[in-house]
Amino acid sequence: MTRRGTIPCKYISTEDAYYSGEAAVVIGAGGVVAIPTETSYGLAVDPFNEEALKRLFDIKLRSLTNPVLVLIDNIDFLPRLVTDIPAPYQSLIKHYWPGPLTLIFPALPSLPGLLTAATDTIGIRLSSNANAAEICRRSGGAITATSANISGQRPARSADDIIEIFKDAIDMVIDGGVLKDAPPSTVVRQTDGRLILVREGAIPFSKIQRL
Fold this sequence. Notes:
The protein is of the alpha/beta class. It has a single domain (3-181), classed as DHBP synthase. The protein contains seven helices and eleven strands. The protein has helices at 19-28, 50-60, 89-96, 113-116, 130-138, 159-166, 205-210, and strands at residues 10-13, 33-36, 41-44, 70-72, 101-106, 121-126, 142-144, 146-147, 172-175, 186-191, 194-199. The strands form two sheets. It has a six-stranded mixed β-sheet. A five-stranded mixed β-sheet has the order 1-9-2-3-8, with helices on both faces. A hairpin with a 2-residue loop joins strand 10 and strand 11 (194-199). It is globular, with a radius of gyration of 16 Å.
């Protein structure tokens, strides 16, 4: 449905039974969909679609040097994105996935350059938000989840925020209600067997180190 005729993009509530299927159709066709996650609203596109990724960067006014986070619906999807699962990640995956922990993996060289920003790495997490997880599953197992904002600005916490920010620049809004203010995901990478904090977030790095 279109939200009360106020915006040209499609608007669907998570209370509608068909929301995830509709979102998956748009994502599969190269579209951009705003979805709720456990941290904020995110912008979901097909991570293997170069044109969709280009559009995502344009919409967010995002620097091409910034790689894009990917959500997966199951750890079995990792081999389609990464060359290796670093040993220190095993316990982190067991304890904190699904959840707000983004792990940076060595990326498959076949992945789109925009996704990795030529870093040869890719940030991945399993979302603990049921709506995001379902959309990810219906979309084939992987979607982007970069924050729904103009780069450098505050992430959207509601569908109204998204509409105000993007107007008709995106194709669909999945309304999961007003999200509580929450820190972003904690981002961690591994270097020479050591865990390195990239961004402090919802999970304190001190707890991660104790594992």
